[in-house]
Design goal:
Strands 9, 10, 12, 13, 14, 15 and 16 form a seven-stranded antiparallel β-sheet that branches. Strands 11-8-7-17 form a four-stranded antiparallel β-sheet, with no helix packed on it. By secondary structure, the protein is an alpha+beta fold. It has two domains: about 130 residues, Immunoglobulins (Immunoglobulin-like); about 130 residues, Immunoglobulin-like. The chain has six helices and 17 strands. The longest helix has 21 residues. β5 and β6 form a beta hairpin. About 20% of the residues are buried.
Length: about 280
């Protein structure tokens, strides 16, 4: 069930196919509105006077250098990233502007930010052919909210195809999930990147409050498809008032001989009594 939900949400987030690029190389009016500021997210809406004009945005802080240098650096990185992904076959039909730019009115989410931190939002028009910045750059300062948290530890038990999650505090809500480890690294660079992106997606569609657990949670994974020898990563973390409020806990398990078996330190653990693994 946990994987089925992820698959359905992923389909909803698929981008549209490439359209014919209209060249707008004269400055147009852009406006920026900060809709919501959270601990690790900023939700913003950008509006363009010309629906054909391409623009982009980024977040800057004092550690990144001058905004002018940052814009030049970001466009160079964007170009390099696009060429690399195109050459290795990761992009089939997407163009540079598909990957890096927006048009019209868009509500966007800047995520995985540092709580209680100063940021500057930069919005700028781009020439879709030369990738040069056109006109003035919109600048708005934002300070993310502090996030109060407390430790929450977890124990995990694996028996057959059943996963049991036991939190150290039976009263605090938390979110846990798992997926194929290789896909996490291929698509999100690391497991926490996958976990954070998954939560952000669920929040956008209003699912999070229905996916939280409180106290011991027992999950029957017999409906999930696993390949023999497949390694998965499971992550759990406290989630309260729309924020992650504890350090996350991460464990790996393998599907072998029709059972889920806990891995520790990259090595398979010995099975306990009646095939029960516990961490």
């Amino acid at each position: 069930m946990r994987r089925i939900i992820l698959t359905l949400c992923s389909v909803l987030l698929l981008a549209a196919c490439s359209e014919k690029v209209v060249i707008v190389d004269k400055p147009v009016g852009l406006s920026l509105h900060i809709d919501e500021v959270k601990g690790t997210k900023i939700i913003l809406t950008i509006t363009s006077d010309d629906p054909d004009a391409y623009y982009s945005y980024c977040l800057w802080n004092e550690l990144a250098g001058a905004p002018e240098f940052l814009l030049e650096y970001l466009t160079e990185v964007a170009e390099t990233n696009y060429e690399v992904r195109k050459s290795n076959g990761a992009l089939k039909i997407a163009s540079f502007v598909d990957l890096n730019c927006y048009r019209g009115t868009r509500t966007l989410r800047a995520t995985d930010l540092t709580p209680d931190w100063d940021y500057t939002v930069l919005v700028f028009q781009l020439n879709p052919t030369t990738h040069e910045v056109i006109g003035d750059v919109l600048v708005e300062k934002v300070h993310t909210k502090p996030v109060e948290g407390a430790p929450l530890d977890f124990r995990f038990q694996f028996q057959g195809r059943t996963i049991t999650v036991v939190p150290s505090d039976p009263q605090r809500p938390y979110f846990w999930d798992f997926d194929n480890q290789l896909q996490m690294y291929n698509n999100y660079m690391w497991p926490y990147g996958w976990y954070y992106a998954l939560i952000d997606m669920y929040e956008q569609y209003g699912f999070m409050e229905h996916l939280l657990s409180v106290g011991t949670d027992v999950y029957d994974a017999s409906g999930d498809h696993f390949e023999e020898g497949e390694i998965c990563t499971l992550i759990a973390c406290a989630y309260e008032d729309g924020e992650l409020t504890s350090e996350y806990t991460e464990v790996d398990f393998v599907f072998r001989d029709e059972q889920l078996q806990l891995l520790a330190g990259g090595e398979e653990t010995e099975e306990g009594e009646e095939g029960d693994d516990d961490l």
